[in-house]
Write a structure and sequence with these properties.
The complex is a heterodimer of chains A (151) and B (83). With 151 residues, chain A is of the alpha+beta class. Chain A is 34% helix and 35% strand. Chain A has a four-stranded mixed beta sheet, with helices on both faces. Chain A has a four-stranded antiparallel beta sheet with strand order 5-3-7-8, with no helix packed on it. In chain A, helix 2 (56-71) packs antiparallel against helix 3 and helix 3 packs across helix 4. The two termini of chain A are 24 Å apart. With 83 residues, chain B is of the alpha+beta class. Chain B has helices spanning 7-13, 29-37, 41-46, and strands at residues 2-5, 17-19, 54-57, 60-62, 73-77. In chain B, strands 2-1-5-3-4 form a five-stranded mixed beta sheet. In chain B, strand 3 (54-57) and strand 4 (60-62) form a beta hairpin. The longest helix of chain B has 9 residues, at 29-37. Chain B is globular and about 35 Å long. Classes of the chains: A alpha+beta (151), B alpha+beta (83). Chains A and B meet through strand 3, helix 2, helix 3 and strand 7 of A and loops of B.
């Protein structure tokens, strides 16, 4: 399995990415996906700025996907993570996996997402509605707990 | 050795990165944090809460007691909030 991995400023085409996974091997019976979006937090935010560590972000995503591939019977995987200033409603991240059956695809997608949250070097900063910079988003304990359940 | 900083660690330190000549006795990530913290108010502020800031050596996560020997690049940053 050769995963498709990208850290990029540009948006991505979810349907095209899922189609590519579906046709990547004739034995694919299931494609599962997660798309993370920028929230407005009830109209409070003008957007989120995503900073990343170039080089390590790609390397860490690759390590997480390799770990998923060793745990689950995957036939394909795609991870795209954006950086830069994103407005509410814009896509931030796509995680998609292909497998013979739904169990492996759904579980692997959740696994990759849980580990991306706590291991991939990205940091979000709030941009406020009406102008001005808000605080850096704090890491959530829910995310740390979500990672631990795979131990 | 090259040091890079991200997010609020970068803001508090006041620069995205720097080259440093490691002094005698600075052997681990934790030693380096201690040495940097003594370099000025911004550094002290960035590393004030020792348990919070994370480190990477040559683009891999490492614990604070990791030796620096052989590493080319060390990074300091807050817990990650991507995804």
């Amino acid at each position: 399995m050769t995963p498709v991995l990208s850290v990029q400023r540009e948006d991505f085409d979810v349907a095209a990415e899922l189609d590519a996974l579906a046709v990547s091997a004739g034995d694919v019976g299931a494609v599962a996906s997660f798309v993370g979006l920028c929230r407005s937090e009830g109209g409070r935010l003008a957007g989120l700025e995503l900073e990343h560590y170039p080089g390590m972000a790609e390397a860490e995503i690759e390590r997480v996907v390799a770990e998923a591939a060793s745990r689950f019977d995957l036939l394909g995987a795609t991870v795209i993570h954006r950086f830069g200033l994103l407005q509410p409603g814009e896509r931030i991240v796509l995680v998609a996996t292909a497998a013979g059956h739904r169990g492996a695809a759904l579980e692997a997608t959740t696994f990759i997402m849980d580990f991306l949250k706590t291991r991939a070097p990205f940091w979000k900063r709030e941009h406020l509605q009406g102008g001005g910079l808000g605080p850096w988003v704090e890491a959530s304990t829910t995310d740390a707990l979500a990672e631990r359940r795979w131990e | 050795m090259k040091i890079v900083y991200f997010s609020w660690v970068r803001e508090r330190v006041g620069r995205p990165g720097e080259e440093v000549e490691l002094p005698e006795g600075v052997a681990t990530v934790q030693d380096l944090i201690g040495w940097l913290s003594a370099r000025g108010e911004g550094y002290a502020d960035a590393f004030a809460n020792r348990g919070v800031v994370r480190a990477a050596l040559d683009r891999r996560h490492v614990p604070p007691d990791s030796p620096l020997a052989g590493a080319r690049e060390v990074a300091f940053f807050p817990p990650m909030t991507g995804g």
